[in-house]
Design a protein that fits this description.
Number of helices: 5
Structural class: mainly beta
Distance between the termini: 22 Å
Shape: globular
Radius of gyration: 34 Å
Strand content: over 45%
Oligomer: single chain
């Protein structure tokens, strides 16, 4: 393990913070633009819904996203502000994103803290924005669309040592923004009126809330205080909404909504108590407005207007429940997009009411959101070496558990209970038909035909098939024919089954062992290495070649590669001498073109020639789960680039299918997979099925783009979900899941939940609970609730050193006052009974809230309000166990994350970074061995080894510390050796890998990796790098930033640097995997530019092929 780290996201952020609507990609079409952390997604509004057309990432966390139409234009531009005070204006031209202008918003004398939120409003003329980035300050941003890359004038630049940080550049007033200080005013909301009037809702130094008008003078760069609009109203008024016409605003409070206009009496309406946090204006004059609140309710506000657009009255009604919104966008035709950071985003239709239903809202589509991920665990539930992530996602009524695995989901459409199936093939009513209509199902000694009629499958009689024999292969062929190969003969008959055109028997009526068919050819093996090729000519089967091989044939394929209906070669798998051959079908003696020997003694069971991204491959599957792939080059005469993987432990059957117009290969086995190509590299994706014996493409009118699969239970028809990296399943929960742990012995998950309510807590209020769920069904097996202000805080499953049983340990806490001065807690030990119920075995009261628990060498570590306790498990003479405190140690402050390695215990502190302790077994004591003397709020920590620890802090930074000696006073310290800005809040690290467990065993093993999950729903991986690999990637990363122009002209090095207050440290010893893996998406010219070190880089001593191979190896840690 090294301190050189590679960080990559396997799942991009899913929480939707921003949503705006406008004509961005074209003046004639309407777009929905979503902002998700560092990511922007663009959709087009279509009659059948939203269509994704573009998505990209920027180097910065999006703080504000506005779509506006600059004066004199017919197409909108995108205005973005990032958390590091950068802004840019983007347009869409020539099918790509163009940066029109960019800049940085500085303010001399003000500390530039990285902010988490801002208020931003556009003036009615579309020329400038008012934003809040600095305390008690309004900044007017004036994008200059005639110039690009505006840089503020620098006063001075002070450079200090890199380790001590670098002071930010002092910035004078720039031409692109104006900073206006409002002394002692905390700004709550902003709204522009006509004539450069800016309304500001603010609190004064005494906490009183005011609404005041200010006059903006762009020429003199001033904001003049005007009249006080309101000075006596509720302190919970939090939102201003500018009306499109009429010159007024809406002031939204918890119990009232007011329409305000200068020189006019307010118009108000009382509403149900709620905190409204989002809105969307539905029409041009603003008389219809949708409002969303923090409890997940959608409201409808109407303004009655006169002919002169004067507001006369307000009407407010509730429409129904939605996800807890962060943003609302009314699209069209009574459809609204609900963006959420706490639950799934939604597309909701507002329906007219009638006497038959009271439901006004109907969810017509959902956009999954994993965030915020409070905790997660990893488990191999299928026992196939492929881990799954189970996350605690969402908040309140939008909370859920999410099961995440690397692979593809199958949506089951139909199932037929049938046993003993040996093979299945789909046929069309004619050769040129698009849809399949029958399935040929083969058994040991017979064949059955299933015909699809409407939505039902029924057995078909009277066809041209020999139903009393086992079918080896069946397929449509030219001239509207069908070939059926049985173990006795090759039958050619009309597709309607009425006329048998020809039947070929091998000489001596020997048995046919294996066969393959394409639209014009058939090749069979009759045992003892004898191979015979047939061709269809004018409705007859004609022998065109034969040969006698030294080895027995185990599988055959003649799939067309270059020609649409025929093949010039036959691929053959052999046993005795395990290997593959390519034979020429153009020669009568089927001469050998090339051959390859495979390792092992198990024969090939399936072979297939396929083309992915215009590259021809030979795929070979063996009987023990081994899988080989070769590239077929020089007109399918040479096999090169042999690679080996494992796709299970049982025999594999290969077949092709089509999804969204792209051909994929389905590998049926005990661990079924889909084989596809990405960036000219074969990728293996698990399928969410346990065991599949064989499969075929079944594209019927009823089940388009479906597959028919045989399992031990019967025949399954389903549609593959979009080929993706991660497959996600949602398990809705009653309460908010906060912590999760897995217990192998009881095959259950233990989940700590929190009950979130808007009502005041009393002693009878349920605060939360602890529940156990079945590992397969996720059904709640048992649950306990907590009241009397006691809250469950943490849980873990463990086995004590003196006990063979496995227990759930639950930590709780109860506040006695608002400052937790007299808080208490409990550590409870539960056992899962045979009938899968929770039984309390033991408990111990604690002097303070028990915040965290973790197993440690058969003992239990508990963090209790700044004290670290070690408990042992003592069993008395009656066989009952109890927790006994063995030792304790004071920590700097409260900790909510602990990890261990051997005898070392590492605590992440809420104020003072990391402390490393060592447990002394002989003295039964804890000794501090090192500390990281920095002010950091650490949210997650993991021990790489006993000297190296990785952590995540609240500011969104990742850092690695190493135990070392202080030269000055000979005290052990934790020194920062690696640091990097992720831009996400990470609350948990877990060891594991998201990559499929099918890597080439002949290649060097991949080091163990760490998985992390974030508040925005992103999932990532941290992997180790050797020093040599790090040097290559570091230079490659530098060169890529020189060659590739970033969107918004945002600096990658600035984004990944550590910025706290006025200090800035460059990122060290981390590699941005998202940037590195984008190398495969570059053009050949850009790749060559990276290699040559163009535009100020340094030439790399590698080839493009070498770099591609390195990137592909790195991608295996998560795909």
């Amino acid at each position: 393990m090294t301190y050189h780290k590679y960080v990559v996201t396997a799942q991009k952020p899913t929480a939707t913070q921003f949503a705006v609507k406008g004509s961005f990609t074209s003046a004639t079409e309407m777009n929905l633009v979503l902002g998700k952390g560092t990511r922007i997604e663009i959709y087009t509004l279509r009659p059948d819904g939203l269509k994704s057309i573009l998505e990209f990432s920027i180097y910065g966390t999006i703080l504000s996203l506005q779509l506006y139409t600059p004066p004199g234009r017919d197409k909108a531009s995108l205005f973005i502000i990032t958390s590091r005070h950068k802004y840019c204006v983007l347009t869409f031209q020539h099918s790509q994103i163009i940066t029109e202008t960019s800049g940085e918003i500085g303010f001399p004398g003000q500390r530039r803290n990285e902010v988490n939120e801002t208020k931003a409003v556009l003036d009615p003329s579309g020329r400038y924005f008012a934003v809040t980035l600095y305390q008690s300050t309004v900044t007017i941003v004036i994008p200059d669309l005639e110039k690009t890359n505006i840089q503020p004038t620098l006063q001075r630049k002070i450079s200090l040592r890199a380790r001590d940080g670098r002071k930010r550049q002092a910035v004078q007033h720039a031409q692109d923004h104006i900073n206006v200080s409002l002394q002692d005013k905390y700004i709550v909301s902003l709204a522009f009126l006509q004539d450069n009037t800016l309304l500001i809702l603010y609190d004064d130094a005494l906490g009183r809330r005011f609404l005041q008008a200010f006059q903006l003078d762009i020429k003199n760069r001033t904001l003049q205080a005007g009249e006080m609009v309101m000075d006596y109203f509720e302190s919970d008024a939090n939102l201003l909404i500018t009306m499109p016409v009429g010159g007024g605003v809406l002031l939204i409070a918890g119990k009232f909504i007011r329409y305000l206009k200068p020189n006019q009496a307010p118009i108000a309406i009382g509403i149900r108590p709620s905190t409204i946090n989002s809105y969307s204006i539905m029409n041009e004059n603003g008389s219809r407005i949708l409002l969303g609140d923090t409890e997940g309710h959608l409201h409808y506000l109407t303004l009655t207007m006169s002919d002169q657009n004067q507001v006369e009255s307000l009407c407010f009604i509730g429409l129904g429940d939605i996800s807890i919104p962060s943003c609302l966008v009314y699209l069209e035709n009574d459809v609204v997009f609900v963006g959420s950071v706490l639950g799934d985003s939604q597309l909701v239709h507002i329906q007219p009411t009638d006497d038959t239903t009271d439901d006004i809202l109907k969810v017509i589509d959902e956009f999954p959101n994993l965030g915020p991920i409070n905790d997660f665990c990893v488990a191999d539930l299928d026992k196939q070496g492929q881990i799954q992530l189970i996350t605690c996602s969402g908040v309140a009524k939008d909370s859920s558990l999410r099961i995440i695995r690397n692979g593809v989901g199958l949506n089951e459409l139909a199932a037929i209970e049938i046993n003993g199936v040996k093979g299945v093939w789909a046929l069309r009513p004619s050769f040129h038909s698009v849809h399949h209509h029958i399935l040929v199902v083969s058994f040991m000694n017979q064949t059955r035909i299933l015909e699809l009629r409407g939505n039902t499958m029924s057995q078909m009689e009277g066809s041209g098939f020999d139903l009393q024999r086992r079918t080896l292969v069946a397929a449509n062929v030219i001239e509207d024919g069908v070939i059926q190969v049985t173990d006795q003969s090759v039958r050619l008959f009309e597709a309607n089954g009425q006329v048998l055109l020809d039947e070929w028997y091998p000489e001596g009526h020997v048995q046919i062992t294996v066969a393959a068919v394409n639209p014009t050819q058939c090749v069979v093996s009759i045992g003892f290495g004898k191979l015979i090729a047939l061709k269809i000519e004018q409705g007859k089967l004609v022998v065109t070649g034969m040969t006698h091989l030294e080895n027995e044939v185990s599988c055959i394929d003649i799939s067309p590669i270059d020609e649409p209906h025929s093949s010039s070669v036959v691929a053959v798998g052999m046993w005795k001498t395990v290997g593959v051959m390519l034979l020429s079908l153009q020669d009568k003696d089927l001469s050998i073109i090339t051959q390859e020997t495979l390792s092992g003694t198990v024969m090939p069971r399936s072979i297939l020639m396929a083309k992915f991204e215009n590259i021809c491959y030979l795929l070979v599957a063996l009987g023990d789960g081994q899988f080989y792939n070769f590239k077929l080059v020089e007109h399918q005469t040479v096999l090169v680039d042999k690679k080996r993987s494992f796709l299970g432990k049982l025999p594999i059957h290969l077949s092709t299918f089509t999804s969204n117009g792209t051909t994929h290969v389905f590998a049926a086995s005990d661990k079924p997979s889909v084989i596809h190509s990405r960036n000219q590299k074969l990728v293996y994706s698990n399928v969410n099925l346990k065991e599949v014996r064989c499969g075929t493409f079944f594209n019927s009118a009823t089940f388009p783009d479906a597959v028919a699969l045989t399992t031990k239970d019967g025949l399954l028809i389903g549609q593959m979900e979009e080929i993706q990296k991660l497959h996600i399943t949602k398990i809705p929960t009653t309460d908010t899941p906060r912590r999760i742990t897995y217990q192998e012995s009881s095959k259950t998950f233990g989940v700590v939940t929190e009950r979130i309510t808007s009502e005041a807590y009393v002693s009878t209020t349920t605060t939360g609970g602890f529940e156990i769920l079945d590992e397969q069904t996720f059904k709640v097996m048992d649950r306990i609730y907590f009241k009397q202000f006691e809250r469950p805080l943490a849980a873990v499953s463990m086995q004590f050193e003196s006990d063979v049983n496995e227990y759930y340990i639950l930590a709780t806490g109860r506040d006695s006052d608002a400052f937790e001065n007299e808080s208490i807690g409990r550590v409870m030990v539960f056992q899962v009974t045979p009938d899968r119920k929770l039984r309390l075995v033991s408990q111990v009261k604690t002097e303070g809230m028990a915040e965290y628990v973790r197993p440690f060498q058969g003992k239990l570590i508990t963090s209790i309000e700044g004290m670290l306790h070690v408990y042992r498990w003592d069993i008395n003479t009656y066989g009952n166990g109890q927790l006994v405190s063995e030792c304790c140690k004071r920590l700097p402050s409260i900790t909510e994350t602990i990890t261990t390695f051997n005898n070392v215990i590492v605590a992440g502190d809420m104020a003072y970074s990391i402390v490393a302790l060592e447990y002394e077994p002989k003295t039964q004591s804890l000794v501090e061995v090192a500390a990281h003397e920095r002010l950091k709020e650490v949210l997650a920590v993991e021990a790489v080894n006993e000297n190296l620890f990785i952590a995540a802090e609240r500011e969104g930074h990742l850092f690695v510390v190493e135990k070392c000696q202080d030269d000055m006073n000979d005290e052990p310290l934790l020194e920062t050796v690696s640091v990097w800005h992720l831009g996400e809040i990470v609350r948990r690290f877990r060891f594991g890998s998201l990559g499929m467990n099918n890597v080439d065993p002949d290649s060097s093993p991949v080091a163990p990796s760490l998985i992390f999950a974030t508040a925005s729903g992103a999932i990532g991986v941290v992997a180790d790098l050797s020093q040599e690999r790090f040097k290559l990637l570091d230079q490659m990363q530098y060169n890529m930033n020189k060659v590739i122009k970033s969107i918004g002209e945002l600096s990658h090095s600035d984004w990944r640097s550590i910025s706290i207050m006025d200090r800035k440290d460059e990122a060290i010893n981390f590699i941005d995997g998202d940037l590195i893996e984008s190398f495969l998406d570059l053009t050949p010219q850009q790749m060559q530019g990276v290699l040559d070190g163009q535009h100020g880089g340094r030439k790399l001593d590698s080839t493009i092929e070498d770099l591609c191979k390195v990137v592909e190896e790195l991608m295996s840690v998560h795909s």
